[in-house]
Amino acid sequence: MQIYQNRSLVKDKLKMLPFTLISTICIVCIFGLITLYSATGCKFFLRAHKQILYYITFLPIGILLALVDVRYIYKYSYILYFIVCVVLVMVEIAGYKVMGARRWIGISALRIQPSEVAKISVILMLARYFHDISVYKLKKIQYSIVPLLLIAIPITLVIKQPDLGTGIIILLITASMFFAAGITLWIFIITFIAGIILLPIIWNLLHNYQKKRIKVFLNPELDPLGSGYNIIQSKVAIGSGGLSGKGFAQGTQSHLNFLPEPQTDFIFACLGEEFGFIGGFLLLTLYFIIICYSLVIAINVRNTFSKLVAIGIASMLFWHVFINIAMVTGLLPVVGIPLPLISYGGTIIASTLLGIGLVMNSYVNKDVDIVKSHY
């Protein structure tokens, strides 16, 4: 079997692409560039060419990924997972350290953040595992322990970098896919109880800056010029935007440097200040369309693997958006989670667009049957 058997097959698959989803993604990308310019002003052109390059590189790659026979993705999902785990170990050994965190690996200016790719690999690994396991076995606790042990490896390596935010995202994606796969409720109850019992140990394992962020979340005024500074300025920015905002590139919090690094984790605060509630609502509506479209695709897919892949990607986007916005509005502690396709950064854009490519792949291959690997 060839990945692309003939030209007519490729043309047929191109016609099946969900162009509504692609169009919505393009609108979000344009929104991202506008917000990036608004957040950075004269510094925009230093970053814009890279951001545009990320968009025009990985969106076509995502579309090409949609045309691949889903059975190939299924076949190599475990291999990708193990490769990513090896790369995460390499980050610990030879990774680049930036601002106290060792999260990047690469050569010279070409660097990637493997923890972002880990989210995709975990989704594919879990989708294959649950595809191969019978519904009867899913009700048995011992068959739930295996995937828990498998996801513990990347989560541990990611948190150790330290990158608590991505570790939490992977954990939430796992919980979402467990629920979608039909795992017995007892697993969630036992895991929740175990988490409560282990809270003191988890607290002691956190870095000092992470503990301080949690304390500041409970009381931002505890350290208004230190750990609480970002969240206070973020809420000031969003609150001052009102209904329609101060206007394009008219934000004071970002342009007068009250809001540090407004182009990354706190870019929604900049958007809220300059475009107000209306701008924020418009962006959330676009995200809502993408996530709902992905879930509708999941409902209409025949094989379990593709169904769970689409659900996994939808949950990844949902948790990213939810936590980022809750973070910048003070509803959750600051954990360093970017806003998909809006925040500046190559690896997060790559992982998001490749994830969308997998969702489109599920749609294009919705009638394909995948033979289970019994074990």
Automatic annotation (TrEMBL):
Known pathway: Cell wall biogenesis; peptidoglycan biosynthesis
Highest taxon, organism lineage: Bacteria
EC number(s) on file: 2.4.99.28
BP GO annotations: cell division; cell wall organization; peptidoglycan biosynthetic process; regulation of cell shape
Cell compartment(s), UniProt: Cell inner membrane; Membrane
Top EC group: transferase
Membrane topology: Multi-pass membrane protein
Transmembrane segments: 16-40, 52-72, 78-96, 141-159, 171-203, 275-296, 308-335, 341-364
An MF annotation (GO) of this entry: peptidoglycan glycosyltransferase activity
Phosphoprotein is among the record's keywords: no
The name this protein goes by in its record: Peptidoglycan glycosyltransferase MrdB
Gene it is expressed from: rodA
